[in-house]
Amino acid sequence: MVQRLTEFDTIAAISTPLGEGGISIVRVSGEDAVAIVNRLFKGKDLEKVPSHTINYGHIVDPATGQVIDEVMASVMLAPKTFTKEDIVEINCHGGSWSPMTSCSCSWPTGPEWLNRANLPSGPSSTGGST
After folding, report:
1. CA angle 114-116-121, nearest 5°?
2. What is the dihedral of CA 110, 106, 56, 76, to 10 degrees?
3. Rg of the chain on CA atoms, in Å
4. What is the DSSP string of the chain?
5. Strand-pair partners of 13
6. Terminal-to-terminal C-alpha distance of the chain
7. Are 75 and 49 in contact (CB under 8 A)?
8. Contacts 24+ apart (CB under 8 A), 28-31
9. Per-residue model confidence as pLDDT tens digits over 48-102
10. Are strands 67-76 and 53-60 parallel, antiparallel or unpaired?
11. Residue 87: beta bridge partners?
């Protein structure tokens, strides 16, 4: 059974084209955006930073503790956003592995869908963390 999204669900999406590039952005938006990203982010407590700030840290897979990437996380709180909802944008290294892993780790099901996407199993010289 497919669960339908409502207009109030928290969602995550890669906001930049996949492939070769210096930076990729993963955008998480909705009521639980800050809490979800805070669970993955090692650095400042994103639930305590002011709105419209960018914060240095690392995205860590909560299941394994493995560092996925060195990132900057922008926290923008409602209602002062375009969609009037909380938004966290994760600026990570370009390529495919880092943004897709960061995006998939945002959800309780974890990154297992990456295995079905035929992506590299880790960072490469053309993308991801070093």
Report:
1. 45
2. 180
3. 14
4. -PPPP-TT--EEEE-S-SSS-SEEEEEEESTTHHHHHHHHEEES-TTTSPSSEEEEEEEE-TTT--EEEEEEEEEE-TTSSTTSS-EEEEEEESSSHHHHHHHHTTSTTGGGHHHHTT--SS-BTTBS--
5. 27
6. 39
7. yes
8. 28/87, 28/88, 28/89, 28/90, 28/106, 29/81, 29/83, 29/85, 29/86, 29/87, 29/88, 30/85, 30/86, 31/85, 31/86
9. 999 999 999 999 888 888 898 899 999 999 999 999 999 999 998 877 666 666 6
10. antiparallel
11. 29, 76
Length of the chain: 130
- What token pair was written down for 84? 């009037």
Q: What is the pTM of this model?
A: 0.72
> Taking the C-alpha atoms of 23, 18, 110 and 71 in order, what is their torsion angle to the nearest 10 degrees?
0
